[in-house]
Description:
The protein is an alpha/beta fold. The chain has one domain: 3-Layer(aba) Sandwich (Rossmann fold), CATH 3.40.50. The chain is built from 11 helices and 8 strands. α6 links the parallel β5 and β6. α5 runs parallel beside α6 and α6 packs across α10. The longest helix has 24 residues. The chain starts with a helix and ends with a helix.
Amino acid sequence: MFYVWLILFVLILLGVYHRCTISICQSNKRLDGRTAIVTGGTSGIGFEIATDFAKRGARVIIAGRIEKKGSEVCNHIIKKTANKEVMFKQLDLSSIQSVRKFVEDIIKSKEKLHILVNNAGVCMGEEYITEDGMSFTMQTNYFGHFLLTLLLVPLLKNSGKISEPSRIVNVTSQAHFKGKIYFRKMNDIKYWTSFQNYANSKLCLTLFTRELTKKLKRSNVVVNNADPGYVATYIIKVNNPILKVIQYLLVQVTQVFVLKSARVGAQTAIHVALDDDAGAVSGEMFYNCKLSKAAAMAYDEDLAQKLWEESIKLVKLEREEVIKV
Length: 325
């Protein structure tokens, strides 16, 4: 009985803390004439980000794996915002071929690109080695975004201005504080637990932000991390019908009493994408719509450089493609 009361007490404290630290993006900026890509925009935080951008008049491209769901979400956002410039494009971040096809389609359509939000992620789901030889979690959360971003950098550069740079927002997680980098075991799904794999992927994304900032120095593109905090979403995938019902009830209860809702969790990423002060810095971490500190390991420049080199090899980037960054 003592432990039950202890858990309840901890949950109440956590709930009070989150209620006291909730921050909402205060920017009134319109996005008319601007294009944004949001990965994982069919649910959770990504859906809220895409909806917010659409309300501001942006041309929003929602990237996700399931076309039917993507079309339904786009229709919902169009109806809700009266913005008809919302579309879905298929993207499987766990496939190099899919990422390249997505980018090829974007470039062929002669789109401009002003905002890229790397939000899609999986946590503690089915783990396996992909056709590209990487951990499904690592490739979906990090390597896929690494490749996608570098292939889109030339377009971001061409679309941005010195006075209004294009922005890359990497949605990381509090879990990155628990992340570890062990290059020999990076994609060894038997070595890491499911959660540790997730934490590792988010640390890699944070290190990527720091290294990419160095590569983009004196360009009209900025890149920053957005940590949404503890959010009640459906990022953990379950297939059992009973477990799905339990998960639904837990999400509904926790987002009211303990954790942030997806809408609140999306605010920091929206802030990083829109706020003038956030656009004046690069390589930084934002939490609760404020500048914050990442894990100490995220500032290790040698580690970030080595991760960059290893990532280029794993996603099979050509030398000519890397030079363009």
